[in-house]
Amino acid sequence: MPRPDLARRAVAEALGTALLLATVIGSGIMGERLAGGNVAIALLANTIATGAALLALILALGSISGAHFNPAVSIADASQRGLPWSEVPVYIAAQIAGAFAGVAAAHVMFEEPVFSISRHARSGPAQMASELIATFGLLAVIWGAVRRRAEAVPFAVSAYITAAYWFTSSTSFANPAVTLARAASDTFAGIRPADVPGFIAAQLAGAGAATLVFRWLIPALPKVAERVVDRAADRVIPEDP
pTM for this one? Predict the structure, then answer.
């Protein structure tokens, strides 16, 4: 089945990223307002909403654009020849535009200023390490699932992000477009603009490291991958004499 043209794929990336950010920001505002000062409850609400929306959006838009919604994923995909490098700027521009549109939509729904500079500090070595590990894990899940059980990718990615909200001190942004847009939201899910460059650098490093590791663990070239699988099967299930 041929891929949709680039314009349709760009719109799918923008729409998916917009709805993802509307979920992240909107559920953060709603959670904080209803939690009565209990940050754990607010984070739990934010986590559940984000994981559920991510699953739905990947299932809905994955067949159109691949449902990257993330510049780090698009760059990693291009490095493995899954996406032409000439299309990467289009994907990234669509993702960033969609991310800011999603922030604006969430703010309008909750009667907040359309954009506001975040004052939520997220700095220090622990935060950077968290983003590197979170993004490494995200790409590891994507590469591991897509090369063995492609149909499981939406469930694997949403499950991982849900977990990563809780096992990382940064609450797992793991996405440069999301990071940029959340700097324009002075709400529960925001990040200070000054902390954005460090987050993005850590995210790109994590994505690159995971791509290199999984390029070796599970070779992308079909013929090589098939030989690896065949050899493994021969060791487990000996041929009949």
Answer: 0.89
